[in-house]
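REQUEST FORM: STRUCTURE PREDICTION
Request ID: SP-0412
Submitted by: Lab K.M.
Chain count: 1
Length (residues): 145
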Amino acid sequence: MHAHEWLCQKIVEGTPDAIIFADREGIIQLWNAGAESIFGYSSEEALGQTLDIIIPERLRQRHWQGYRTVMSSGVTRYGRELLAVPAMRRDGLLISVEFSMVLLRDSAAEIVGSAAIVRDVTGRWHRENALKERLSKIEGNWHYF
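STATUS: Completed
RESULT:
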């Protein structure tokens, strides 16, 4: 293994963020330790499964429509913008995640799938909602004389 490959492997293995690669059909081919920690599935459990294991059921149809469009068009805005969405852990708990993605192409420039870098932002989401609720209560108690 070349030094560059070793470095890339260590970064993927060691980051606390999830790094997930799914092929054109949405079958998980790469699932790092960060993904194990965030979603609760071991790599042995996740590899070969579809992305449905982390997508809440109510969002699956919309997800797959978008995924197929991106795979056929080769265009996604989430290479530059973060997407914030609900996701689902193995235990069924819904969490809030943000992710960016990169489309991977083979030597003939054909899309072979997409990689996503995913961060669990559930704690921040709860803190922001608590602040919004407090602000709403304060504004609701404000009286004009």
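NOTES: The longest helix spans residues 122-140.
Reviewed by: T.R.
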